[in-house]
């Protein structure tokens, strides 16, 4: 068939087939991108799960440190009355209290992370989506 012998029906049919092909290509591209994003999300989830497993010894060590601080505070309180009022011991007690506060805060943060790993996963997926979005936004057509 030459261009002069084409009927309007055959032209419309060719356009419909071309649109169908383009649509199928776009669907395949979207499926591939979705598959890629899901595999990245799965990899991030696996890395976070491994990271959470590494926090268990840290949590145990924090509990041990808290117990040690409590023991030191008890030892400080059991000192004889005359020595307990000295400025050095008061400063030591204040430093123990500050250390205990920091350990408690750190322990609470770790407990919050291990109690709700879904929040960390959501945050990681949001970051990955932002990186993909910024990568796509950085794509510009070549200057011609």
Which key phrases capture this entry?
single chain
Q: What can you tell me about this protein's structure?
A:
With 144 residues, the chain is mainly alpha-helical. The protein has a domain at 38-77 and 88-132. It contains 4 helices and no strands. The protein is rod-shaped and about 115 Å long.
Short account of what is shown:
This protein has 144 residues and is mostly helical. The protein has four helices and no strands.
Q: What is the strand content?
A: under 5%
H/E topology pattern: HHHH
Helix/sheet category: mainly alpha
Number of helices: 4
Rg, please? Answer: 32 Å
What is the CA–CA distance across the termini?
36 Å
SSE map:
Blueprint: H1 8-77, H2 81-84, H3 87-115, H4 117-137
Helix pairs in contact: 1-3, 1-4
């Amino acid at each position: 068939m030459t261009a002069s012998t084409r009927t309007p029906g055959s032209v419309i049919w060719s356009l419909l087939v071309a649109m169908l092909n383009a649509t199928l290509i776009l669907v395949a591209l979207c499926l591939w991108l979705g598959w890629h994003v899901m595999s990245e999300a799965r990899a991030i989830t696996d890395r976070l799960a491994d990271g959470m497993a590494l926090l268990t010894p840290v949590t145990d060590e924090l509990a041990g440190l808290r117990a040690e601080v409590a023991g030191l505070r008890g030892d400080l309180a059991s000192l004889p009355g005359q020595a307990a009022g000295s400025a050095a011991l008061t400063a030591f007690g204040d430093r123990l209290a500050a250390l205990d506060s920091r350990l408690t805060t750190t322990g609470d943060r770790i407990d919050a992370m291990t109690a709700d790993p879904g929040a960390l996963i959501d945050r990681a997926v949001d970051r990955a989506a932002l990186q993909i979005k910024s990568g796509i936004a950085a794509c510009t057509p070549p200057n011609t």
